[in-house]
Amino acid sequence: MKNAREGNVILIVEDDYQIAKLLADTLRENGMTVEIACDGSEMDSQFARNEFDLVVLDVMLPGEDGLSLCRRLRTKTTVPILMLTALGHEIDRILGIEIGADDYMTKPFSAREVTTRIRGLLRRASYAPVSRERPKLYRFEGWRIDPLRRQVHDPSNARVPMTTHEFDLLLAFCRNPGCILTREELLAVSHAGLAGPIERSVDVHMSRLRKKFEKDAKDPVFFKTVRLGGYMLTAAVEVT
């Protein structure tokens, strides 16, 4: 059970004590509760004792590395993950995002900047939140969406591969069926805008989402474009 503590509860998984302490002190100054783990084993122990609102996860860790830990976390929880690394190669960032990280920062970094990123991720996570202990399944027109495992199955029960961005957008629609979601709101629940302008980035990801769900992506039935508004999921969604 989560301890009854005020503010968001953050877990920092970082083997460099000075970095972990600097970041923890800054987050505590901003009203957050912080726990620190130096490796995967301590991370598992922390999760056995507490619930967390966000995990800051270093890539280069002793034993099991951060990418492996991120992948493992994603099989058990939807908690937001911010990855930290000394590696500056774009492929590392892409890999981290694709296996389930929500954001990615390269060392050296400002503790204040990390705090700003964390606040943004917490706002995103609070957008129509789902219980992490017993996450709901969403169903519409035979489709099944599992937020915990981040999996999608089509009406024939075949698993449909989804990128992180596509799944985040889909989840936002399932939580708000029949509601118009603006591009700005969709950007807030995904990282669709990291690669370019908001309009182009969101539209590109929506186009890919339609190709996976619609019989005719050019004449969508489920994901409708609302002129001067944004997008809307028209199907009735069942929560089980």
Automatic annotation (TrEMBL):
Source superkingdom: Bacteria
Listed InterPro entries: CheY-like_superfamily, OmpR/PhoB-type_DNA-bd, Sig_transdc_resp-reg_C-effctor, Sig_transdc_resp-reg_receiver, WalR-like, WH-like_DNA-bd_sf
SUPFAM superfamilies referenced in this protein's UniProt entry, alphabetically: C-terminal effector domain of the bipartite response regulators (SSF46894), CheY-like (SSF52172)
The organism's taxonomic lineage, starting at the top: Bacteria, Pseudomonadati, Pseudomonadota, Alphaproteobacteria, Hyphomicrobiales
Alphabetical list of PANTHER family matching this protein: DNA-BINDING DUAL TRANSCRIPTIONAL REGULATOR OMPR, REGULATOR OF RPOS
Sites bearing 4-aspartylphosphate, chain numbering: D58
Residue ranges constituting the Response regulatory domain according to the UniProt record: 9-122
One Pfam short name: Trans_reg_C
Cellular-component GO terms for this entry: cytosol; protein-DNA complex
GO biological process: regulation of DNA-templated transcription
Record key words, sorted: DNA-binding, Phosphoprotein, Transcription, Transcription regulation, Two-component regulatory system
DNA-binding region: 135-235
Transcription listed as a keyword: yes
Record domain OmpR/PhoB-type: where: 135-235
Name the UniProt record assigns to this protein: DNA-binding response regulator
GO molecular function, one term: transcription cis-regulatory region binding
